[in-house]
Amino acid sequence: MRTVTVVGASLSGLYAARELRAQGFDGRLVLVGAETHAPYDRPPLSKDFLTGRADEARLALTDAEERAGLDAEWLLGVRARGLDARGRTVLLDDGRTVPTDGVVIATGASARRLPGDGLAGVHTLRTLDDARALREELIHGPRRVVVIGGGFIGAETASSCAGLGHDVTVVEAAVLPLVAPLGPEMAAVCAALHRRGGVELVTGIGVAALRGSGAGASRSVDAAHPGRAQAGPAGPPVTGVELSDGRILPADVVIVGIGATPNTGWLAGSALALHDGVLCDDGCVTDLPQVVAVGDVARVGGARAEHWTSATEQPRVAVGNLLAGHTVETVRSVPYFWSDQYGTRIQFAGRRRQADAVRIAEGTVEDGAPGDDGLLALYERDGRTTAVLSVDRPRPFTRARRQLAYDQDPVEPTTAVNL
Amino acid sequence: MIPVCRLADLPAGASVRVGTTPPVAVFNADGELYAIDDTCTHQDASLSEGWLEGCLVECPLHAASFDLRTGQPTCLPARRPVRTHRVTVDDGIIHVHLFAEEGTAA
């Protein structure tokens, strides 16, 4: 291979570029990034960046010295708009084409939006630009904030807003937030963090419309067909969120945190199979052996993970397979995610299924919420641990997480010296 | 010079966080004592709660790894070192000599 093009210059794209060089690729390396910013880390956007504890410099994933060492061509602020049928040419939206021998698809995902959400004061939180705009709205004294969606982004953003002194309500369509990843028992325990943090939680109800000031400024919501992210000119200011039972929650600021859609639109008409992501084998390789996919956009072995750790781990395997010309290694990591909210750190690892039993192995639940010392919960099936959840218990969590990895892949024994 | 705890209370494999500013983590790695800045240089996490293996500590949040002897990161996502601090034991009490007081790395 003389040229490899990495499409997407965020976390997984940068890691792929690093891996290409680390694994000996010394040809032409092109990185295409839709955002104008150099690669930055997204997790702090809903936490320390939003509260002002971290500035933009803390978000940088790379620096000039490393970029010089990578010896890559950075095409930032440019979107890919297509990949030819043979996967040998990347088409860019500025009219340029990049002939290439290999492609790493790392185009990530975009925040889902509510249709017709063009009211001023309505935000999503996915990019640095999103976070800058939201931060600007939160520094003008206390506001009434409604967060739609109680997932990780929604919960962390709600926590940050409450910490800044705003009046916050979270609206979650499901019976409980985070019920899919954590299961009902632990989702209930984690939901109590909202209450303890002074945030109102409204569950089991959808959003019918976003209301704005002025005639005809109401925007109906068709929850079954969430829109795609597209920044439009701000309309009249938002005044409230109308729930499907007719209740209206007054709001000065609305944050829509209802998930993300993989950025595969540019691949329409290519030879690649697309279904909620780019379909890959267990080694991140697509239908074309010289095209691999990593990060939020990749559906690897039937599952698409939107986790930071997956985005950093997949590139090593994907790049190895790309350079080998076929799949020589598969991704074998245990899924892991974390969330910081209301002064606690939630960590989860493993693969929970619906029928798994859960038990508290350490710590306690007090008044429906994690006790002051946090807790460690183990999910079990047929006497085996399938997943582990920690609230502020990092050391036993790490031990359990390593054990899960060892059970799955007994390669090297874990040391028993840690107390 | 800051007293930390009794040597007897920090067996091999154990670590303790010292609430200085910035906080420091002291480790007993197979009988050798080391002190480094407690906060991971990647994101806000306490290395005293990390996973100790030989002279390496793995951050509990994103698995960045640091060499306790030098403070240097041995893998991503951390790219900047943590400071190291000199450790002494007097009368069975562990003391940390903060880098800032020493002026040079221990």
Based on Cα principal axes, name the global outline of chain A.
Answer: globular
The CATH class of chain B is: Mainly Beta
User: How would the global form of chain B be characterised?
Assistant: globular
Give me the number of helical elements of chain B.
1
Largest sheet report of chain A: 5 strands, parallel
Q: In whole angstroms, how far apart are the ends of chain B?
A: 13 Å
Number of helices of chain A: 8
Low-pLDDT stretches of chain B are none
Order of helices and strands of chain B: EEEEEEEEEEH
What share of residues are in beta strands of chain A?
Answer: 25-35%
Largest sheet of chain B: 6 strands, antiparallel
* Helical content class of chain B: under 10%
Task: Please give a structural write-up.
With 419 residues, chain A is of the alpha/beta class. In chain A, 23% of the residues lie in helices and 30% in strands. Chain A has helices at 11-22, 48-51, 64-70, 128-137, 152-163, 179-196, 308-324, 394-408, and strands spanning 3-7, 28-33, 73-76, 80-83, 89-92, 97-99, 102-105, 109-111, 122-123, 144-148, 167-172, 200-203, 207-212, 219-220, 238-243, 248-250, 253-256, 260-262, 278-280, 291-293, 298-300, 336-341, 344-350, 357-366, 369-381, 384-391. Chain A has a five-stranded parallel β-sheet with strand order 3-2-1-7-20, covered by helices on one side. A five-stranded parallel β-sheet of chain A has the order 9-17-10-11-12, with helices on one face. Chain A is globular and about 60 Å long. The N and C termini of chain A lie far apart (49 Å). The mean pLDDT of chain B is 93. In chain B, a hairpin with a 6-residue loop joins strand 6 and strand 7 (65-67). By secondary structure, chain B is mainly beta. In chain B, strands 1-10-9-4-3-2 form a six-stranded antiparallel β-sheet. A four-stranded antiparallel β-sheet of chain B has the order 5-6-7-8, with no helix packed on it. Chain B has a single domain (2-97), classed as Rieske [2Fe-2S] iron-sulphur domain (Rieske Iron-sulfur Protein, 3-layer Sandwich). The longest helix of chain B has 4 residues, at 99-102. Chain B has one helix and ten strands, in the order ββββββββββα. Chain B has one helix spanning 99-102, and strands at residues 2-6, 15-18, 24-29, 32-37, 51-53, 56-58, 65-67, 73-75, 84-90, 93-97. Classes of the chains: A alpha/beta (419), B mainly beta (106). At the A-B interface, helix 7 and helix 8 of A face strand 5 of B. Chain B: It comes from Streptomyces fagopyri. Chain B: Residues 2-96 form the Rieske domain.
